[in-house]
């Protein structure tokens, strides 16, 4: 993982700078790696509560909704989820994280309500957008995600 390699490298650089013995360098590096491993998110399945999943999207798919959704996506989501929703944005590699493939057919099987809930509450390392985006903008970005999944 490039992130862990980077951590190890920076710890080594830091320690050689302050002239710590090699054993301490190794201990510090492994402590940091254990810690960052916990930050990287779990692999267990993420499911929305049933009541949330039933919520209907009040924003119809239209040129203006897709344009608004695309604008939000490019600004807020692309860095992790990638230009085409492939989970390969530049931050994904830098942070050593594994963002969901939003272009994947499994996303198509999720309801808009499920996606809305996930975007609203977030899940480390993904931020929550409940206060960062208006409800209408969260629905707009979902309409845009649907257009990625169709390709
Ligand atoms: C810091 C990186 C990051 C950013 C920014 C980010 N995400 Fe995510 N996203 C993730 C990660 C990582 C996951 C996987 C979480 C998990 O399942 O553990 C995820 C999961 C998701 C999921 C759930 C997919 C599923 O499994 O059902 C949706 C939907 C989603 N993101 C949409 C968005 C949208 C929309 C934005 C922008 C408004 C966004 N994300 C911004 C990292 C990010």
Description:
- The structure is a single chain.
- By secondary structure, the protein is mainly alpha-helical.
- The protein folds into two domains: 2-41; 50-148, Orthogonal Bundle (Cytochrome Bc1 Complex, Chain D, domain 2), CATH 1.10.760.10.
- The protein has helices at residues 2-18, 22-39, 50-53, 63-81, 90-95, 105-109, 112-121, 135-150.
- Heme C is lined by residues 41, 46, 72, 76-77, 79-81, 91, 97-100, 102, 110, 115, 118-119, 123, 125-127, 129, 141.
Q: Enumerate the distinct ligands.
A: heme C
Structurally, how many domains make up the residues? 2
CATH architecture of the largest domain: Orthogonal Bundle
Assembly level: single chain
Q: SS-based structural class?
A: mainly alpha
Number of helices: 8
Biggest sheet architecture: none
User: Could you list the spans in which at least 5 consecutive residues all have pLDDT below 50?
Assistant: 27-41
Distance between the termini: 29 Å
Shape: globular
Examine the coordinates and then state which fold CATH places here, giving the name of the CATH topology of the largest domain.
Answer: Cytochrome Bc1 Complex, Chain D, domain 2
CATH homologous superfamily grouping of the largest domain? Cytochrome c-like domain
Mean pLDDT: 82
Radius of gyration, in Å, reads 19 Å
Strand content: under 5%
- The top level CATH class name of the largest domain: Mainly Alpha
Helix-strand pattern, N to C? HHHHHHHH
Fraction of helical residues: 55-70%
The total strand number stands at 0
